[in-house]
Design a protein that fits this description.
alpha/beta; FAD/NAD(P)-binding domain; Enolase-like, domain 1; 3 domains; five-stranded parallel beta sheet; 28 strands; about 25% helix; about 30% strand; binds flavin-adenine dinucleotide; FAD-oxidoreductase/Apoptosis
């Protein structure tokens, strides 16, 4: 009997890959193995509704236990894969070993191992009261501590830090966000959007410090009591949330000798440098999904799902699908940001609406070509740009700011 496919990493990408294999008619065994003790669950609510206490743990699971049985997916939780080798005979087969000594032969291997939270290494970084936010166990610990915290410092002004800051404010804590660069969410959005978020969080009572680097944490009785910054500022804190990015889990890929470059390098069909091995999700770097140029790392649900679907197709030899238009969302309290496309490399942007009204959109262009939209509390504008990108259509930059004209009336075929 075939050893089937081994999917290492049981989360967004791994589960999607297993489900897509079945949908494509794959009948061999599928083992989905993950080191977390939980069945696959959604991470986005961990910094939103789950952290705020408005969604319980029972809302996080992707699927019921019965689903795995019925789909013939052998889900193994709480087992870390520590070793993996491929047969030397150019077949795709191999064997994986787990921390508990289990051996799992496979015919095809998929790596969907995700990323782990980047940790601070400054003095005091291991004190109690310093929390990270990657998995449900992190979120459960943080949630419990938030209820009693009066002074919260969030280190990192990216999406997760700002979402956590919004939740902490809703609990009534005094909140300070400390960001090392000169603006919030700087890797993802234009300065006008960064500035909007700074002002919006400040309006809600959160202090925002940019160009501020954490040098140490001060303790009182083994617990964090203050955050020290490079300019000598000392911020009192009884709880610290750190959201300073992630590190892709490349360790197994490196053992296999697969090309890694800030993530496991894959092609548009999710094949690694050893084409029989596929990889998907936060652990990968991939060609730009729309232009094919360069390599990008996309930490998003959409990208994990899209790549996992492509990986399953590659395993069964199904044809390529249409290119994926990336999309993303971030809910920071009542501020809902929706992003479609990738703005990387833009040379022009158009602001539609007044940012301080807290309802606006920014459309990004390169050489007149529509690249992306950041829409704050503006779902219709988001939807129109996403549709335009999907259809290869555009919206003329010189008319996009005109709020009197619905964006959908401006949709036109790209030159
Ligand atoms: C707090 C939070 C909020 C987010 N909010 C949003 C959002 O609003 N919108 C959005 O689009 N995206 C959001 N994301 C990102 C999104 O959740 C990720 O992009 C997505 O989870 C990636 O899925 P993945 O399967 O690639 O990786 P992961 O979800 O990281 O899963 C990888 C799994 O593999 C396991 N694993 C790793 N190595 C091994 C091994 N050797 N053996 C066994 N198991 C292993 C890990 O333990 C993990 O369970 C958020 C992420 C977080 C943490």
């Amino acid at each position: 009997m075939s050893a089937g496919t081994l999917v290492v990493g049981a989360s967004q990408a791994g589960l999607q890959l297993a489900v897509s294999l079945r949908e494509l008619g794959y009948t061999a065994p599928i083992t989905l193995i993950g080191e977390e003790p939980h069945a696959p669950y959604q991470r986005p609510p961990l910094s939103k509704d789950f952290l705020a206490g408005t969604a319980g743990p029972e809302t996080l699971a992707f699927r019921t236990p019965a689903f795995y049985r019925e789909a013939g997916i052998d889900l193994v939780c709480g087992e870390q894969v520590t070793d993996v080798t491929l047969a030397s005979d150019a077949s795709a087969t191999g064997i994986a070993g787990t921390a508990s000594g289990r051996e799992l032969p496979f015919e095809r291997l998929a790596l969907t191992v995700g990323a782990s939270a980047r940790r601070l290494t400054v003095p005091g970084a291991d004190l109690a009261g310093i929390c990270y936010l990657r998995g449900v166990d992190d979120a459960t610990v943080l949630r419990a501590q938030l209820t009693g915290a009066a002074r919260v410092v969030v280190v990192g002004g990216g999406f997760i830090g700002l979402e956590a800051a919004a939740v902490a404010r809703s609990f009534g804590a005094s909140v300070t966000v400390v960001e090392a660069t000169d603006r919030l969410i700087g890797r993802a959005v234009a300065p006008v959007v960064s500035e909007f978020y700074r002002r919006a969080h400040e309006r809600r009572g959160t202090a925002v410090l940019t160009c501020a680097t954490v040098t140490a944490f001060r303790e009182v009785e083994g617990r964090v009591a203050a955050v020290l910054l490079s300019d000598g500022t000392e911020l009192p804190a009884d709880l610290v949330v750190v959201g300073v990015g992630v590190i892709p889990r490349t360790e197994l890929a490196e053992k296999l000798g697969l090309e890694c470059d800030g993530g496991i390098v894959v092609d548009a069909r999710a094949r690694t440098s050893e084409p029989t091995v596929v990889a998907a999700g936060d652990c990968t770097v991939l060609p730009h999904p729309l232009t094919g140029e360069g390599r990008v790392r996309l930490e998003s649900v959409n990208s994990a799902v899209s790549q996992a679907t492509a990986a399953a197709a590659a395993i069964v030899g199904a044809p390529d699908r249409a290119p994926n238009v990336p999309w993303f969302w971030s809910n920071q309290g009542d501020l809902r940001l929706q992003i479609a496309g990738l703005s990387t490399g833009y040379d022009e942007f158009v602001v539609r609406g007044e940012p301080d009204s807290e309802k606006f959109a920014v459309l990004y262009y390169r050489a007149g070509r529509l690249l992306a939209v950041d829409a704050v509390n503006s779902p219709p504008d988001y939807m129109v740009v996403r549709k335009a990108l999907t259809q290869g259509a555009t919206i003329p930059a010189d008319r996009a700011a005109d709020e009197a004209t619905p964006l959908k009336q401006l949709l036109m075929a790209a030159a």
